[in-house]
Design the sequence.
């Protein structure tokens, strides 16, 4: 009995000590953001009566003589992604006192890895890249990243430049990341396949019916010389997000009846051999890039990040130019009565960590990368910056390797952009539930109705918590 | 007396010095986390913010959680399928390989291959062999057995995925438990069989009345180890059935996957620990039942 | 008599047929693996006709796999981990087991009970709190974490203790009378005698560590720290359609475990039998 009591006490002591630690952590973390702007204000206040000349002289040394700072920055796939190094180099040139140290956490499970890195103490990251919204929600709830509101106000950043995306990631009125990259979904197609068949290319204004018809027209089920009219990657987004383009529904609704027509569209296509089977893709884990570059897929709905991949892999010879070298893009198909050019966006942002010793320096970097200077660097590497200026657009469309037809250029004009996943408190769990039942529907484990009913039940349970 | 005591103390010290290197590591990295795991199940914690007390809330929530229920159901089905099949297969193999057959060393080695081979490697081969449209298995079903293309089995989804996992596990673990049975068989005295032969017992009778009872404690060990190993299935599921982003659907999700997901994706550490407690309880109960049965049998 | 002979011959044939079928089931996946590893992606699934060795074997797969992913680094990490864990496991387990089997001391039963009680406890039950603790120690994304995790198992101690109990106490008593210290007895008498069980424990530990997936998945985050299993999985998700390459990587990952197993297997059955693992 005594022993039992001891062990209970021991457990209790352990738990309280851990609670104590993290409690004080939490305190420190929430204090940090409040402190820093005050400090900067205080230092400004310290020389209140000085002239503007004095001000500039006070600032100037800060820029040149500033103590060397090293910012540790979490990224993924350094080798295969061109812009990390380009951004770091350009910023180091702009701010010579800063050294950017990149840490590659790999793209698989990036946000999971990052969340483990940032929970509790011991992390020495200053700036972290935010890959998706569920992961962002986790970090915000863990108080692992700072609210940028005070910085944004102090530096007068106009959030209007971000085309409304920042509204969809605002948490209780506060913003914790600033986007620097904004990808949106378009329709890629293989021109050679259309030419061979003598079918007209897809256009920038297609309804889902047009798209379905076109995909079926392109399909050839002859064994040995199969052509797939279209391709859907195994991601939930590739199917479900068709249904939110009308702007009336979101992924967070809790009632997913509106997805039904799109599951029917895709599953009917699958049954007729218009696209590869989900179960096959799952069994072999076929990557969409391998599918499209294999030259037997006429159309592919995918994010604009794939443009840079196509350009660089065709140039390096990784993809066979005879199979997929002649490609183009058009706007996403749309539902009847919805404006063409409505599409889905995925933003990539930067956050300042709560654990950073130099949050002010980290913020400067975030501001720079997400601002016009960073946007130019992004565009030069073929990527879409969050601030889409005409200049950036021109840089991308005039890259060598970008499709030369006008439709492909026009395809980049987005009219409405909806985030794949907007912020919600339990977005991580909603996301897992939707992922899971998407798999069930696509693999035929559940009928569309069963799957949607299960989604409704699971998500409502999460929302109701 | 004092001298005796100090000698005893000295001996204790020597004994502890032997134990210390292992025990310290064991206590810090196993015992402490176990105690913590029990406590965590009654708490709410996301790994960063202050811990709050949850009481039984985490356990109450389990009842309404469809993913948990699916995971529990699949894990149990997987165990019920895998444990007896593996046991029978490994026992049969051990009995055959305990006879004087040519090349039995080679056969023993071969049957151990799947166990030592890396899981990622062998699952990727299985996924190729059982590929729903291109794999040789379905190819044979189609060309030899004339199964229409649209009725070919989908080995990695729906109702067949658990069967695939079970078959794969039997294949993988058979050799391992075969070795344990082989060791057990070698402990049975040859005289018993000779006596039985003199009495005119046939092969089945010898098995029924000598081999099986003599192997009872081995079987106990095998079943307990198998049960524990089956309940903690994770990597087989994720590698054979993992979907587009690696997630498992309700037809293939298992308890350990759910523990992992709740802890490291959703950061509900308390809830995750509650699921872990269910896992522990299942293993504990099965082991206890086995233990009771074993004792009853022996007495 | 004749019929009995015939019956015996028949049952022998039956046994061989069963054995051959089983051997085939065991081997086919590996043969497929080897065959696919020297094929191009298009040849891998070619069925009519199926060729075991293509006309122009694509040996370059075995070269490319080292270039496409840092396989060498993964191998280094895995070899390092496996060797350290196995050595630590052998050393500390046999050390502790000797004490439990051959020495008398206070709280012996209590301490041993702690080991026994956790044998049936799946690691997955406490992996989360263990991870939290390790992170507090600053072991997140360190190879050392995997060593701490794997090196001190209750199973090793239990197994070695069972074996030592089978060695007559008189042997130790005689040595003690000769004035040998306990450490000498352990080193010069017990260790040499325990080859079979050490070999068995080596195989168990080696295979477990080499093939562990969930442990490294939780602890090892940066690419330079990854093990072969994680690396292969990563490669599969990135180069999904390069079947030949995936298979070449898989074949390479099998070689070390197979070598260790083949070297030690002659002790194996003996070891399992002697350690009373059979129950």
Sequence:
């Amino acid at each position: 009995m005594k022993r039992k009591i001891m062990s209970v006490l021991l457990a209790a002591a352990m738990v309280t000590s851990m609670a104590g630690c993290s409690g004080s952590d939490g305190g420190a973390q929430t204090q940090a953001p409040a402190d820093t702007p005050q400090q900067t204000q205080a230092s400004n206040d310290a020389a209140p009566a000085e002239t503007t000349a004095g001000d500039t002289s006070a600032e100037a040394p800060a820029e040149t003589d500033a103590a060397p700072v090293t910012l540790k920055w979490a990224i993924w796939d350094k080798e295969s992604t061109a812009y990390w190094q380009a951004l770091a180099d350009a910023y180091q040139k702009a701010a010579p006192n800063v050294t950017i140290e990149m840490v590659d956490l790999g793209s698989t499970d990036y946000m999971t890895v990052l969340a483990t890195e940032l929970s509790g103490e011991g992390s020495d990251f200053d700036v972290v890249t935010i890959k998706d919204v569920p992961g962002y929600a986790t970090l915000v709830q863990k108080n692992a990243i700072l609210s940028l509101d005070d910085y944004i106000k102090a530096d007068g950043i106009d959030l209007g430049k971000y085309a409304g995306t920042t509204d969809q990631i605002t948490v209780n009125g506060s913003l914790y990341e600033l986007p620097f990259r904004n990808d949106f979904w378009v329709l890629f197609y293989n021109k050679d396949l259309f030419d061979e068949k003598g079918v007209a290319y897809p256009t920038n204004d297609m309804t889902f019916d047009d798209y379905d018809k076109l995909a079926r027209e392109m399909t050839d089920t002859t064994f040995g010389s199969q052509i797939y009219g279209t391709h859907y990657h195994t991601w939930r987004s590739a199917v479900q997000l068709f249904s939110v383009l009308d702007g009336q529904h979101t992924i967070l609704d809790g009632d997913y009846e509106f997805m039904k027509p799109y599951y029917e569209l895709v599953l009917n296509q699958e049954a007729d051999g218009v696209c590869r089977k989900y179960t096959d893709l799952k069994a072999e884990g076929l990557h969409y890039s391998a599918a499209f570059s294999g030259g037997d897929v006429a159309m592919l709905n995918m994010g604009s990040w794939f443009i840079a991949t196509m350009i660089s892999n065709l140039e390096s010879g990784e993809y066979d130019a005879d199979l997929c070298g002649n490609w183009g893009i058009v706007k996403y198909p749309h539902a009847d009565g919805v404006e063409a050019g409505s599409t889905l966006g995925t933003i990539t942002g930067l956050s300042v960590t709560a654990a950073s010793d130099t949050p002010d320096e980290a913020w400067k970097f975030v501001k720079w990368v997400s601002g016009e200077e960073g946007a130019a660097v992004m565009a030069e590497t073929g990527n879409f910056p969050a601030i889409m200026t005409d200049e950036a657009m021109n840089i991308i469309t005039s890259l060598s390797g970008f499709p030369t037809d006008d439709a492909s250029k026009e395809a980049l004009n987005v009219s409405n952009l909806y985030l794949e996943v907007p912020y919600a408190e339990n977005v991580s769990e909603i996301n897992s539930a939707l992922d899971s039942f998407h798999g069930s529907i696509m693999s035929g484990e559940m009928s569309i109705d069963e799957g949607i009913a299960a989604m409704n039940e699971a998500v409502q349970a999460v929302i109701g918590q | 007396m004092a001298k005796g005591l100090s000698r005893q103390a000295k001996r204790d010290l020597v004994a502890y010095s032997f134990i210390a290197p292992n025990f310290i590591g064991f206590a810090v990295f196993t015992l402490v986390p176990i105690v913590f795991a029990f406590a965590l199940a009654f708490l709410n914690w996301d790994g960063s913010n202050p811990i709050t007390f949850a009481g039984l809330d985490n356990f109450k929530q389990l009842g309404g959680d469809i993913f948990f229920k699916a995971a529990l159901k699949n894990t149990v089905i997987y165990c019920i399928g895998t444990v007896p099949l593996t046991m029978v297969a490994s026992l049969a193999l051990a009995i055959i390989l305990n006879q004087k057959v040519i090349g039995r060393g080679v056969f023993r080695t071969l049957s151990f291959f799947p166990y030592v081979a890396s899981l990622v490697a062998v699952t990727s081969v299985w996924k190729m062999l059982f590929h729903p449209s291109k794999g040789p298995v379905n190819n044979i079903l189609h060309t030899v057995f004339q199964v229409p293309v649209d009725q070919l089995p989908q080995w990695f989804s729906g109702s067949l995925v658990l069967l695939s996992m079970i078959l794969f596990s039997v294949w993988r673990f058979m050799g391992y438990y075969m070795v344990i049975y082989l060791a057990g068989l070698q402990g049975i005295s040859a005289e018993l069989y000779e006596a039985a032969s003199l009495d005119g017992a046939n092969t089945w009778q010898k098995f029924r009345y000598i081999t099986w009872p003599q192997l009872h404690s081995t079987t106990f060990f095998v079943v307990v180890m198998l049960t524990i190993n089956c309940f903690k299935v994770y990597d087989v599921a994720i590698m054979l059935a993992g979907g587009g982003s690696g997630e498992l659907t309700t037809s293939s999700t298992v308890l350990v996957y759910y523990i992992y997901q709740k802890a490291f994706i959703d950061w509900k550490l308390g809830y995750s620990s509650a699921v872990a407690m269910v896992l522990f309880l299942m293993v504990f109960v099965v082991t206890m039942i086995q233990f009771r049965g074993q004792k009853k049998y022996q007495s | 008599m004749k019929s009995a002979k015939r019956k015996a011959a028949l049952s022998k044939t039956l046994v061989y047929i069963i054995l051959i079928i089983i051997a085939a089931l065991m081997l086919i996946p590996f043969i497929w693996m080897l065959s696919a590893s020297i094929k191009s992606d298009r040849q891998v699934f070619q069925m009519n006709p199926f060729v075991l060795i293509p006309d122009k074997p694509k040996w370059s797969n075995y070269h490319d796999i080292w270039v496409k992913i840092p396989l060498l680094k993964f191998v280094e990490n895995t070899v390092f981990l496996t060797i350290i864990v196995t050595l630590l496991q052998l050393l500390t387990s046999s050390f502790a087991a000797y004490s439990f089997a051959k020495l008398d001391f206070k709280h012996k039963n209590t301490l041993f009970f702690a080991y026994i009680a956790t044998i049936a406890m799946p690691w997955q039950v406490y992996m989360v709190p263990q991870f939290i603790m390790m992170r507090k120690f600053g072991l997140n994304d360190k190879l050392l974490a995997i060593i701490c995790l794997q090196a001190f198992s209750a199973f090793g101690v239990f197994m070695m203790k069972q074996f030592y109990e089978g060695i007559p106490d008189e042997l130790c008593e005689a040595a003690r009378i000769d004035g040998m210290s306990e450490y000498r007895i352990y080193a010069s008498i017990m260790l040499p005698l325990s080859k079979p069980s050490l070999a068995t424990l080596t195989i168990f530990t080696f295979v477990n560590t080499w093939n562990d997936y969930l442990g490294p998945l939780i602890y090892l985050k940066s690419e330079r720290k990854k093990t072969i299993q994680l690396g292969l999985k990563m490669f599969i998700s990135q180069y999904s359609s390069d079947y030949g390459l995936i298979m070449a990587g898989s074949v390479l990952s099998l070689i070390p475990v197979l070598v260790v197993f083949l070297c030690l297997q002659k002790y194996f059955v003996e070891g399992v039998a002697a350690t009373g693992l059979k129950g």
In short: Chain A touches chain C through 18 residues (CB under 8 Å). The two ends of chain A are 38 Å apart (CA to CA).
